[in-house]
Amino acid sequence: MSIAISGGIVTFTIVYAMMSFPAILDDTAKISRSSSEMSNTLDAIIHTNISISNLVDTAATATATFSITNTGNTILWNYKQFDAIASYPPLLPGNRVTSVLQYSSSCTGLTAGHWCINSITNDLNHPGLLDPGETANIKMISSNQAITSGGTFTINFGTDNGVIDTSSVIIT
After folding, report:
1. What burial class does residue 27 get, using C-beta atoms within 10 Å of its C-beta: 0-12 exposed, 13-18 middle, 19+ buried?
2. Which residue stretches of the chain have pLDDT < 50?
3. pLDDT digit string (tens) for 25-53?
4. What is the pTM of this model?
5. CB of 51 closer than 8 Å to CB of 69
6. What pLDDT digit, counting tens, does each position of 8-23 carry?
7. Using only C-alpha atoms, what is the Rg of the chain?
8. pLDDT for res 27
9. Rounded to an integer, what is the distance from CA 48 to the centroid of its chain?
10. Quick check: 54 and 65 in contact, CB under 8 A?
11. SS in 3 state form for the chain?
12. Fewer CB within 10 Å, N- or C-terminus of the chain?
């Protein structure tokens, strides 16, 4: 009798271990897939870099123009996920105004609080995408139309994977 009980316990243990094995393998596969995705994201961040140049802001129209050059190795394309944050002095003395600007796919009829890509210089490989070495010419209109001439206008511009650059200029 004791041999039969021992055999039953051993059989149950073996069957239980075999039934648990697929769940352990599934969890291991999920962890491996998650690690791979994280590695790909970090790789994209490491190979992404941008540079702001030619920043000009005009108080009369609250319009700013600047250029973003893709100095990294990643193709940039997800413009709706980019961040454009402008900071400038108000018309009346007080705290600086900070505006988060939304992407617009067209510069025609651009409204306050939006930015757009006016053109991409040397856009030969993938039209409409910002390939490495290409420069996007950006136009934006501040949310607050009343901007003080002579103050400092600052733009913080970030890509969809969090790489940012900042530039400032005296408002004309």
Report:
1. exposed
2. none
3. 566 667 777 777 777 666 766 778 999 99
4. 0.75
5. yes
6. 676 767 766 666 666 6
7. 27
8. 66
9. 10
10. yes
11. CHHHHHHHHHHHHHHHHHHHHHHHHHHHHHHHHHHHHHHHHHHHHHCCCEEEEEEEEECCCCEEEEEEEECCCCCECCHHHCEEEEEECECCCCCCEEEEEEECCCCCCCCCCEEEEEEEECCCCCCCCECCCCEEEEEEECCCCCECCCCEEEEEEECCCCCEEEEEEECC
12. N
Both tokens of residue 18?
A: 């075999």
Distance CA 139, CA 65 (A): 5
Q: Cβ-count burial of 77 within 10 angstroms (0-12 exposed, 13-18 middle, 19+ buried)?
A: middle
